[in-house]
Amino acid sequence: MRYNRKHEIIYLDERTHANDFFCLAMAGKTLPTPNYTIHHSYKDGYLWDWYNFEYVLSGKGYIETREKKLCVQAGDLFFLNKLQQHVYYADKSDPYEKVFLVVSGSLVDRMLAAHNVTESARVVRTDARDIFEQAFSVIEHGNLSQNAYTELCCCILRLIQRIAPPNFSAAATDAHPADLIRSYIDYNIYERLTLEDLANIVHRSVSQTERIFKTKYGVSPIRYVLDKKLDTARTLFRATFLNVGEVAERLSFANVKYFSRQFKLRFGQTPSECIRNQERDPFSGGEDPL
Questions:
Q1: Residues 59, 90 contacting (CB under 8 angstroms)
Q2: Residues 116 and 247 in one domain
Q3: Which range has the worst mean pLDDT, 9-18, 94-103, 234-243?
Q4: ∠ CA 141-144-145 to the nearest 5 degrees?
Q5: Are residues 180 and 87 in the same domain?
Q6: Residue 58 — φ and ψ, nearest 5°?
Q7: Residue 140 belongs to what domain range?
Q8: Among 141, 163, 185, where does a domain finish?
Q9: Residues 6+ away with beta carbon under 8 Å from 257
């Protein structure tokens, strides 16, 4: 950790060690100072080529692009696109305190493209503090392992989902209510979902929601949530180095015992057995359930 001349606490600075797939180039906190200003523009013959995700903890500030001027204040998450010209700065009378993650790589390119994030700057009112705290916690452990990079990638994905959430409003689409519920579940599979949450998406009662979904898909929405979470867990065991407890927590299971019991009922093996089998034969995979 160090302080720079911009009155920022820098937890990580890896810009000189960037890779093409995923790089957390910089992470830190901006302390309140009325003279804080950052320019993203031509510098030594090239454009600023990293993505910025920043969350305002207190105070306020401004972002200027070629097209617009935006005000940001406490509780705002803002995104600055790469290869764009920005000037952003603190308010003179009420300078902001903010946290930031600066990233690059083809993985981030594709995640942003999949969420149709193309504008120069975007500001969203959302509580994203916990996502930054999770990323900083990973960084504090020192050397970034492959497991740590998996955690950081997930943090960036969660931030992208905050700045570009899909529109699940029934009034905005002609999709069948059951399809809206399923899309919402698939998109929010890492969250703890209740039948009441799903009913609110389609503006139906709990009983109507359950009946509509089961009629189309043959299972209750809560059963679908559980099966989808378990499928996702198995994918995480195959593709990452997360342990059983970390996967259970990531998928918002109430406790590890319940998660392990349901996993074995679905796949015929415990999560630990799944991990051991994968370590013995990483290319086995097996057939996914229908």
A1: yes
A2: no
A3: 9-18
A4: 110
A5: no
A6: -160, 165
A7: 2-163
A8: 163
A9: none
Q: Say what the alpha-carbon torsion angle 115, 118, 120, 122 is, to the nearest 10 degrees.
A: -30
Report the CATH number that the domain containing residue 185 is assigned in CATH.
Answer: 1.10.10.60
Show Cβ contacts of residue 228 under 8 Å, excluding neighbours closer than 6 positions: 185, 186, 189
Do 75 and 218 lie in one domain? The reply is no
Q: Round to whole Å and give the CA distance between 88 and 80.
A: 10
d(CA 58, CA 265): 48
Of 145 and 56, the structure prediction assigns the larger pLDDT to 56
| pLDDT tens for each residue of 68-88 | 899 999 999 999 998 888 899
Task: Fill in the DSSP letter of residue 43.
Answer: B
Phi, psi (deg, nearest 5) at residue 197? -60, -45
Report the number of distinct structural domains present in the chain: 2
β-sheet bridge partners, residue 69 = 64
Distance, CA of 242 to chain centre: 17
Which of 163, 188, 215 is the C-terminal boundary of a domain? 163
State pLDDT tens for residues 94-120.
999 999 999 998 999 999 988 888 889
pLDDT digits (tens, 9 = 90+) for 184-210: 898 888 889 999 999 998 899 999 999
Q: Where are the alpha helices (DSSP H) in the chain?
A: 106-114, 129-140, 146-163, 177-187, 195-202, 206-217, 221-239, 244-250, 256-267, 271-280
